[in-house]
Amino acid sequence: MEIDTQQYKELGNFIKTRRERIHPSQVGISDTSRRRTLGLRREEVAMLAGIGVTWYTWLEQGRHIQISPSVLHSIARVLMLNEYETLHLFELAKLTPEKPLQPIQTLKPIFQHVLDSLVYSPAILLDIYWNVVGWNAAYTAAFVDVSQIDISHRNLIKMMFTHSEYQKRFENWEIKAKEMLARFRVSCAGYSKDPWLRRGIESLREESEEFNTWWPLHEVEPEREITKTIRHPEVGNLFFEHTVFMTPENELRLHIDTPLRHTETEAKLKQLLSR
C-alpha cells in the first residue's frame, strides 16, 4: 500500500524515538566510550536487525523506500517494541489496511438514548477524530457542560490540552494527558493523510506547549480500563472506573466513567443531578 511523504516522516520519527530509549547494555553491547547519540547508534540497530546501515538511515530520515514485514519485525525486535508499539509501527508502514474515513455529522437517537440511560455514569461518544458528538447529564455534572463549548472546540484532545476548566478536573493532569495522547496517536495512525487531522494537530501544537512537546515523542498505548480521580469544585473528589467501548458503526468510541464502588461518588452525582 502506498505511503505518502508525511507517513514516511511519521514512521521515521517513531523508530528514531524508540532507538534513542534503548541503552546499549539492553541488547548486549558493552561500550564504555562517550556517546554523542542517545540510546543505540543507527549502525548498531542495522547490525542487530541484519539490514543495511544506509537503508536503515533512509528509513529514519523518512525517505521513500520499500519496506517489508520481515524487516519491520526485525527492527521491532531490536528496539524491544511491545505488542502495541509493534502494531503502531506496522500501521504507520501501511502494512495493515487503511481505514475508511467516516466522520459523523449527526448522532442517531439510539446512541443518545444509550447515553441518557447511564444515569449516574458520566459518558461521552467520540467520532474517529475524537470530536465529542454526544454526552449525558452526568458528564455535564461531573466534568463540563459540552453544550457551552464552541462546536469547533468540542474535541476531547483539544479540551484536555486547551480548556482550563476541564483540565482542573483532573488529579495528576499531566499523567492523564500523556496517557490520553498516547491512546489518541494509536487510534489515528491510519489517518495521517487526512487534512482535518493534520490541521487539528498543527493547531494544537500552536495552542498548547505541552502538546507540542509530547506529540513528537511518539508514545503509544492501548485503550484499557483505568481508575481516575475527578476534582469537583462543589462536592470534592469523584472516583471512577473508566472504560471505552467501540461501536461497529463509524468507529464511534463510547467513554464511560462508572462510579467506583465503596466510595461516595454515586451519591455525590445524585446530589449534583438533583439541582
UniProtKB/TrEMBL annotation:
Gene Ontology MF annotations: DNA binding
InterPro entries: Cro/C1-type_HTH (IPR001387), Lambda_DNA-bd_dom_sf (IPR010982), MLTR_LBD (IPR041413)
Gene3D superfamilies to which the protein is assigned, alphabetical: 3.30.450.180, lambda repressor-like DNA-binding domains
Sequence ranges assigned to domain MmyB-like transcription regulator ligand binding in this UniProt record: 108-272
Protein name from the UniProt record: Helix-turn-helix domain-containing protein
Organism of this sequence: Megasphaera paucivorans
